[in-house]
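Hallway conversation turned thread

IA: we were arguing at lunch whether anyone had actually written out Serine/threonine-protein kinase 17A end to end. Turns out nobody had. So, for the record, here is the sequence (412 residues) and right after it the structure tokens. Reply here if something looks off.
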Amino acid sequence: MIPLEKPGRGGSSSAAASGSRAAGPGASAPRRPPPPQARGLLTEIRAEVRTAPFQDGYRLSPGRELGRGKFAVVRKCIKKDSGKEFAAKFMRKRRKGQDCRMEIIHEIAVLELAQDNPWVINLHEVYETPSEMILVLEYAAGGEIFDQCVADREEAFKEKDVQRLMRQILEGVHFLHTNDVVHLDLKPQNILLTSESPLGDIKIVDFGLSRIMKNSEELREIMGTPEYVAPEILSYDPISMATDMWSIGVLTYVMLTGISPFLGDNKQETFLNISQMNLSYSEEEFDGVSESAVDFIKQLLLKKPEDRATAEGCLRHPWLTPSSIPSPFKVEGAVEAPDILQEGDSVAELNEDTEKSESEGPLVTEELIVVTSYTLGQCRQSEKEKTEQKAISKRFKFEEPLLQEIPGEFIY
């Protein structure tokens, strides 16, 4: 079992792969294919693109930067005439000397397509300057669900929370898939919450990597965030709606356990873990998680895209029915993955969670992992691992984006 990686604030990263097949053991980093063309992009929008100065209608909130990418920054803003809060996404039209206005138009068009869906971030207005396009978006005050994934036990998601939020995510994704849209970058950083306390509803954001899938076209692209990309991305096989479903399986795993199932100590190891299906469903990872939840993940983390459950099928899974009641998940004869502590990492113990209830399951000890040069992340370590003072591999790790730079931002 290997750690969880969070892309840096540099933008959505893209998974590298060989020209035809995923790299095998001992292979060098996969090669990138030629840059993708504009296939799968919507090129017409209904929105009135305003050329009046953005500052005439809105004022930026001091110090409230919500996200930053290689080619965009998201700032909190206030509409002057109403006082309502929004998120303004400032997107550069030229990126590395190339005109990328078409990619921005595509993102706007997808947001327009999903304008009436409650689980997709709402687009309010669009402005354009000679160098930028500005998307005025709904403000999701609860922030990313990633923050809940790395929180300590008292603040982390409970299984009943994940059930409710995952149903909303799937309803949103089902809507997109029904309209031939594949997101291709579903991850905790791209799922926002309308409020943090009480726990609000989800909003799917960042459609910079999304594509329109037509039955008559075969689309092969290398994109996504390393530990969430599907095997077909790495092997440069055709993308489909099932590519999103793999990412949802990884997302569910992370939300329930605080552990990334495939992330390695470097990008190549991450790719190998995905292509070789190196993941664990042991009791150490799923302590206190229901067997139904584990079965749900297993319906998605399948190597062959045609074997994975669809969004519609997932919504019919027993785990997501209102009457579903979590029960402790146990695995007989589970084998633990080797624990490796990277050089430069340090471990600081947190106080044990002394509160224990039937809904939360067995007592879980917390560990805080400090990853050198990046930031803090939390993982859950068993009492057995703690007493034996083993090194820890199940942790959050943060790295810069991967290889090929493809338009798309970290948030919104």
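OS: looked through it. The CA atoms of residues 46 and 261 lie 41 Å apart.
IA: good, adding that to the notes. The mean pLDDT is 76.
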